[in-house]
Amino acid sequence: MSSSEHQLATAGELAVPDELTSPQAKLVYLSVLVTDEAKATDLQQMLDLSKLTLFAVLESLAARDLIQRTGDCYVCR
User: Fold this and answer.
1) Which of 39, 49, 24, 22 is nearest to 75 (CA)?
2) I want to staple 7 with a disulfide (CB 3.0 to 4.6 A). Which of 18, 40, 46, 49 is the partner?
3) Domains of the chain, with CATH numbers?
4) What is d(CA 9, CA 44) in angstroms, rounded to the nearest whole number?
5) Cβ contact 66:77 at 8 Å
6) Residues 11-46: pLDDT tens digits?
């Protein structure tokens, strides 16, 4: 699914895909969106999430084609 196919619910200038229902998924997605490029360690510290939780959310977002890993960083598609 391309990013143009995602249904978006907008809040100001930030947009969260409708398919995200988990508060943690929304939080991680928005964090990656506003930082443009985020390392997992930075996200972990910023959001105070365990590595296990964070990587599960990042994997879920990547599987939905909402983010992608570029080297050691994550970016929104």
Assistant:
1) 39
2) 18
3) 9-76 (1.10.10.10)
4) 25
5) yes
6) 456 789 999 999 999 999 999 999 989 999 999 999
Q: Measured between alpha carbons, how far is 68 from 75 in angstroms, rounded to an integer?
A: 6
Whole-number Å distance between alpha carbons of 40 and 59: 11
CB 37 within 8 A of CB 70: yes
| Long-range pairs, 38-44, Cβ under 8 A, ≥24 | 38/73, 38/74, 38/75, 39/72, 39/73, 39/74, 40/72, 40/74, 43/74
Tell me the residue type at 42. D
